[in-house]
Specification:
This protein is α+β, with helices and mostly antiparallel strands. Helix content is 51%, strand content 14%. The chain has twelve helices and nine strands.
Length: 293
């Protein structure tokens, strides 16, 4: 596999990361064995996970199990930001590996692993990936309602009949009522006029758009891409969403309805200059959709 062919995907099982790499040459995904072992053992300690896999590999090899020989090594980014070679298995290998664990753990994991996602989220996520590959995103307006509509229309076109359309009904979520439909047009005009030159201005604009919630569904997934576009254009930075825990992000968004400073601090601590990095974009999409689960 050539490095430029690698596509990174992150899936989440019980809020745990399972990293995967796409192999263009063989048209299949390779999954991180250590991530799977950690999930199946419900173990977060990397050293313990690595040691268990080392023990299990020796045991399988002694039993003449072909699973060990089916592994390949690819580089994945570790917690320290550096890339290290790690054992990977394809789908068939992961299924075989799961059989080495107790029934209940393996069954629950395999139900998740073998599930074919044809949902709206699954389909729109695939479309979100192609925004980077096609470079179509460079044609969208930055920081405007129209630009946000363009993103939404692309992500959900053919999935929602209201894709890209500003809602004409009032909506609420978790007891919070977003801008009333009859006031939405004026609110969005005001947001369009807001400056977006500094981090504080961009986050405030993002928070106001969240309060507006202009679409019936798909607001969060669309506006996070919209936010990154503003950051890239004006600050030459984007968000490394993997550094922001789901709970922290959701709490900051709730607080941002009255005070955006907590959200700004959270975003500021996760900024990176890797604005043209394919892996960073793909990882951002994975986390963005994970926040909505």
């Amino acid at each position: 596999m050539k490095a430029e062919q690698l596509k990174i995907s992150i899936r989440f099982f019980n809020d745990r990361e399972v990293r995967a790499v796409w192999d263009d040459e063989h048209s299949k995904w390779w999954f991180s064995v250590l991530d799977i072992v950690g999930v199946l053992n419900e173990e977060a300690d990397y050293t313990k996970v690595r040691n268990y896999w080392k023990y299990l590999k020796a045991k399988l090899k002694k039993e003449n199990n072909q699973l060990v020989s089916a592994t390949t090594q690819l580089k994945l980014t570790a917690a320290d930001g550096k890339k290290y070679k790690t054992d990977m298995l394809d789908s068939e290998g992961i299924i075989e590996l799961s059989k080495s664990f107790p029934g209940k753990k393996a069954t629950k994991f395999l139900d998740w692993f073998l599930y074919s996602d044809t949902s709206i989220d699954g389909q729109s996520k695939k479309k979100a990936y192609t925004l980077f590959e096609s470079n179509l995103i460079s044609q969208f307006e930055v920081g405007t309602t129209k630009g946000l509509q363009q993103i939404h229309a692309y992500l959900f076109g053919g999935l929602y009949d209201f894709a890209g359309q500003i809602r004409d009904k009032s909506i609420s979520k978790g007891g919070y009522r977003f801008v009333y439909a009859q006031h939405l047009k004026n609110t969005l005009q005001q947001i369009d006029e807001m400056p977006q030159n500094t981090l504080e201005e961009i986050i405030l604009k993002y928070a106001e758009m969240n309060k507006a919630h202009p679409f019936m569904e798909g607001n969060g997934r669309s506006t996070r891409i919209w936010l990154d576009m503003m950051l890239k254009k004006h600050l030459k930075k984007c968000v490394d969403w993997s550094k922001i825990k789901k709970e922290n992000y959701m709490n900051a968004m709730i607080i941002s309805t009255v005070d955006s400073s907590v959200l700004m601090q959270l975003i500021e601590n996760a900024l990176t200059t890797k604005i043209n990095d394919r892996e960073m974009f793909m990882k951002g999409i994975d986390y963005s959709y994970y926040y909505e689960e």
